DNA sequence: TTGTCTCCCGCAGGGAGACAA
DNA sequence: TTGTCTCCCTGCGGGAGACAA
């Protein structure tokens, strides 16, 4: 059975159509995945809409919908942008594995002319933002815990974090000798799960015992997957899961051979466009690729206010460890995405420099900058970006999830969220230089949710925090720094790197390098770089990387490596053989940062390799390679080898991607309150 | 993983093309099922051919490929007959449930003209039959056991019939105190299964114990499913399963809505025909419908020598109980299949009378005749026919399986078999009247395998007999009666009724009714007819019909029925209220026969209802209704009600069939040695 | 505070003889 | 000869405290 939240969505649409006062150019982003034609996902589409269209479900759905990585565009025969009207949006969940996906029904529209666009935009800009004034949103409580080995073991149940249990679960009478109760929670399919909840163990803790293992095995949960509990206003408990990056289980794997996949999948779209009939687009957040649907308003804004060289941006991100870091950047170059594949595409490939600041480290401030191309991006006025940390590989997923409520009633605006995968590709800032920031704020309330907020919600989803949606959304933009304020509304920067790049630029307003890569090799301590992950010439597979002992094991292994194989170690151009001091615990943070930063140096510093880097990232994600295994691919070779390695990986990725997804199309989706049109980049 | 026996098939094709001496108009029949377009079965086609193309595999595949019921044609926009060349045949097995299916790659050919056809046929008729002279076939030993409740229970293993174990399993040292050995068998996917085989229990018997339950649960076997063991010349043991009629498990269920299923599925065929490019046809024996592929030679023969009114035929069949019966029949009328749906179809609807003889019964001879229409049938010169007994409903499947080897090297002719489903529809005999029977024998060696032989093989597949393929195939046509001899070569008659018709006509050369239905009600003892299964107005579902106590339970239930509800009992036009004597055990055999014979009387006797009867049968099969429940549908109504019941059932069937299969096409497949062409009836 | 380990104990289920059809 | 039942015994795994990070 699948959840069909159409009903609620229809409500939204009605609101949007008839009562646009509250609706801005909301950031409704949809990414394509799977077959994007009218063929429905074959193994899972029962087509029977579930009767559970409550707000709580919407929230749970969104909470489960954390986008993963992305992929580059593919060129097809369709026109670059296709403007569409959103006819229907179904929030669904695969019955096989509970993964959420969206089916968007689109109706192609006549292309809108330039002047028309401007009119529409100016309409938007005058609208007052009254979202904060109407906090009709209930305050559900949610927590997300990444499952440990103990949680998924056959012995014992699920250990609930104390705050999470107290916040989301019904009150428990602690005066009893063995406090226990029955917990009832519904999953996305409306299936009711009953667990025995106890407060036991020594010391005492909250546990789900009886029937937990049934749930875990039925949902095929493994350590690293995450479980979400969400308590609505009415006290009703919802239950969702979000899987760690792993092979898709039960998702439609349309293996389509190259010779017939393109026409078969795209022809329905082509046909729909030519006949002005509806077609469907599927979006699986967990397997999303670069293709997406762009809000029409954003498209308009980007066309009117293109990003220009010199535009600066700022971002914050979370690391494995607490110290706050910030990152400033400047757009250094703007180029066509791919003039051959996408001759008329509005997407731009933006080269940028970012500046790194590492606080609270060892000797003080260490900085570096690198010039990294980030492709994609209709010239958005508001951009979210986040960074994936290595936690992804250890079962904790770093997400740039923006609250779906964000100051506006989520019942009326259930689609008001941005997918991470979109942020991947979008890097542009035209907000800077604009004098009236509030205009942009008013034009798109979604963008008010800065990265800090998104980051906080992320922590909630990771079980690090418990929050109510209300409190989260109302704290928006208070945590933003100066740069974030400056670019507020449209430039909250959210760069989502694929895990393997491990490029964790740190913000520093003081130190900048505006030009090309200025890579200071003197900052690298070779021995440090070797630490932990840089084992070379070691082809023994490292298992159990997800297990808690992972780092320790690696370190031991690395010690061996240093003793044995240091001679041949090379990190691109940098020989690691000269000196290899034992890393001390104090500089390990910096070590990790630098290691991440420089691992892809040879790639990121070369603008021409931009695409390949991205593809390479995707390969890694797709192939579920572990971090150090990925690095094995890219180190131990000269720069020339790196190039060929990337090309090989890219080819591999393309092949796999084709096989898995059938094809890719990128859609620019508009979901404005009066012009529900899409720009489809096919 | 799927088994791809292409390699062996390719060999065949090569032989066929380059060395046609041994090749006649072989009866390679393929039925369509699932989506018959170029879209491959979505959930299961891994596409990776398995490396196990041995003869043993071919035999196992065929042994597992017992066709079930059929369905009527559907009208589509394609031309009536499409002649195709067989480019490839892949014998595959769904990895989900081990069910076998075939993918036939067809290349449309220019339609062949009339004179051309005759030439080709005369070519065939002159070819000498040398199949018997070259017995290069190895002699594998095979047995098939329908699983009992004990076999599939969680306690204990699999009880192997003694003869089966001695014939197919390696020798066991009975002198040991606890004779045991490890048995290794490969399934259709090449997966190796290891069982502990013991000779234990008290009294001693052959058992598979350790790991049997793993196999059973992994294959999701239930009581009623059948397991096949096949030992090749090399001693290698193969293992296959054939499921009882039940909902398909894991088979591609392409739910295609009516508005787009037809064009989507058929357009590739249409396109392939117009562009003379290849397309694929899938055939799942277990879910086969009426659509099929006809050997070109048969097509030619049928067109040249059409069946004419008065043609007589004979058949033998097996009953639940030993007594041999025979059935003679005469074609009484020939008509178009459906001039509206199939304006130019070569298929003919043949009305016929059959004559029944019941031997060894009570007082001697009891006879009856009925005139039943059997639709379908390009005017084949050789026809196989069998009868489904009620055993099907009790987990024992009655099959009219013709040995694939049949006097010709199976390595070179692995496709030399006829599917039951084809036999369903084909009813015609033009062999009669021909003076030179040997011509037909020579022309098509496959047809030499008479029904008796097929029947014996059937018993093997049901575990009632153990045989070597060699011995089975070389006994062909010795057991045939006079009629079978007369029509030998091309008229081995094989009528496969769907279970619910339960029409078991018995052969009698002495008593015939050449005209329309002459139904002698005086032969019916109403009380007898009520016996056992004729419970009326009883809507309590009868469960566990497959269990051994079934008949006893039914009888008890029937006793109740007779006491309570006899007043309203009506068997079509025959009131059952007059008298209802308690059936004695002596006439129960006849009772059962008559009960079967007359259950569909109101339908079969009306030529206009011919199609509906067939559809009705299909409904029954499709809906997995039990025998008596089916009868509930058809009795207790007047003849008018019967009509509407049938129509309702037909509509239901059509709907279900559409949903399950997407569409249906019928193919006439030719696989002659020089003209590898198909006639496709779309 | 919470992840893992270990120990206890209940029960599912395999294995094989008993019994009967 | 073989299907079913029953009894025995093993091992999986749930449940909860012990212990430690």
From TrEMBL, chains A, B:
Keywords: Auxin signaling pathway, DNA-binding, Nucleus, Transcription, Transcription regulation. GO terms for biological process: auxin-activated signaling pathway; regulation of DNA-templated transcription. Residues 111-140 are annotated as: Disordered. Residues 117-127 have a biased composition (Basic and acidic residues). GO terms for molecular function: DNA binding. It is found in: Nucleus. InterPro entries: ARF_dom, ARF_plant, B3_DNA-bd, DNA-bd_pseudobarrel_sf. Residues 143-245 form the TF-B3 domain. One of its GO terms (cellular component) is nucleus. Belongs to the ARF family. Homodimers and heterodimers. Auxin response factors (ARFs) are transcriptional factors that bind specifically to the DNA sequence 5'-TGTCTC-3' found in the auxin-responsive promoter elements (AuxREs). This is Auxin response factor.
């Amino acid at each position: 059975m699948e959840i069909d939240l159409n009903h609620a969505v229809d409500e939204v649409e009605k609101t949007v159509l008839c009562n646009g006062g509250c609706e801005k150019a909301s950031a409704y982003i949809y990414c394509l995945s799977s077959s994007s034609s009218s063929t429905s996902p074959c193994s899972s589409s029962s087509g029977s809409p579930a009767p559970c269209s409550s707000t709580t479900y919407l929230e749970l759905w969104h909470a489960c919908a954390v986008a993963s990585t992305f992929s580059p565009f593919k060129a097809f025969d369709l026109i670059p942008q296709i403007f569409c009207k959103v006819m229907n949006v179904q929030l669904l969940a695969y019955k096989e594995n509970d993964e959420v996906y969206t089916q968007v029904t689109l109706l192609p529209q006549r292309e809108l002319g330039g002047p028309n666009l401007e009119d529409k935009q100016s309409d938007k800009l005058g609208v007052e933002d009254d979202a904060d004034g109407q906090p009709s949103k209930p305050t559900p409580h949610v927590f997300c815990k990444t499952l440990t080995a103990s949680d998924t073991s056959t012995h014992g149940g699920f250990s609930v974090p104390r705050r999470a249990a107290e916040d989301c679960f019904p009150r428990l009478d602690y005066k009893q000798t063995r406090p226990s109760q029955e917990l009832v929670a519904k999953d996305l399919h409306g299936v009711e799960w009953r667990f025995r909840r106890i407060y036991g163990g020594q010391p005492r803790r909250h546990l789900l015992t009886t029937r937990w293992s049934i749930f875990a095995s039925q949902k095929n949960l493994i350590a690293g997957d995450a479980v979400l509990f969400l308590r609505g206003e009415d006290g009703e408990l919802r239950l969702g899961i979000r899987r760690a990056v792993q092979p898709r289980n039960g998702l439609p794997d349309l293996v389509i051979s190259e010779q017939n996949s393109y026409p078969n999948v795209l022809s329905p779209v082509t046909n729909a466009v030519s006949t002005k009939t509806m077609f469907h687009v599927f979006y699986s957040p967990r397997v999303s690729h670069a293709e997406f649907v762009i809000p029409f308003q954003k498209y308009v804004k980007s066309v009117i206010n293109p990003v220009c060289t010199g535009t600066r941006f700022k971002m914050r991100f979370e690391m494995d460890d607490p110290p706050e870091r910030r990152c400033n950047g400047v757009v250094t170059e703007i180029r066509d995405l791919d003039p051959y594949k996408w001759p008329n595409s509005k997407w731009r490939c933006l080269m940028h420099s970012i500046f790194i600041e590492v606080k609270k480290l060892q000797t003080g401030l260490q900085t570096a900058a690198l010039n990294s191309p980030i492709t994609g991006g209709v010239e958005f006025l508001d951009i979210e970006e986040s960074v994936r940390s290595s936690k992804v590989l250890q079962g904790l997923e770093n997400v740039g999830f923006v609250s779906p409520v964000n100051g506006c009633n989520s019942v009326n605006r259930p689609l008001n969220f941005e997918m991470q995968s979109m942020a991947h590709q979008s890097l542009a800032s035209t907000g800077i230089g604009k004098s009236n920031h509030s205009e942009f704020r008013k034009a798109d309330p979604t963008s008010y949710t800065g990265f800090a907020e998104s980051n906080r919600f992320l922590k909630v989803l990771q079980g690090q925090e418990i929050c109510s949606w209300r409190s989260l959304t109302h704290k928006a933009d208070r945590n933003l720094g100066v740069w974030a304020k400056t670019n507020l509304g449209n430039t909250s920067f959210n760069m989502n790197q694929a895990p393997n790049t491990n490029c964790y630029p740190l913000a520093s307003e003081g130190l900048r390098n505006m030009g090309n890569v200025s890579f200071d090799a003197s900052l690298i301590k070779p021995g440090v770089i070797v630490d932990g992950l840089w084992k070379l010439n070691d082809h023994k597979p490292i298992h159990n990387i997800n297990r808690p002992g992972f780092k320790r094991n690696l370190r031991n292994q690395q010690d061996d490596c240093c003793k044995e194989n240091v001679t041949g170690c090379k990190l691109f151009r940098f020989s690691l053989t000269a000196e290899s001091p034992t890393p001390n615990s104090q500089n390990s943070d910096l070590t990790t940062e630098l290691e991440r930063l420089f691992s892809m140096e040879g790639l990121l510093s070369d603008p021409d390799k931009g695409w390949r880097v991205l593809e390479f990232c995707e390969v890694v994600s797709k192939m579920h390679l572990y971090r150090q295994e990925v690095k094995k691919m890219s180190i131990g070779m000269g720069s020339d080898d790196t190039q060929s390695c990337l090309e090989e990986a890219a080819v591999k990725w393309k092949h796999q991607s084709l096989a898995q997804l059938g094809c890719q199309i990128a859609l620019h989706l508009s979901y404005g309150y009066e012009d529900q049109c899409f720009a489809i980049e096919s």
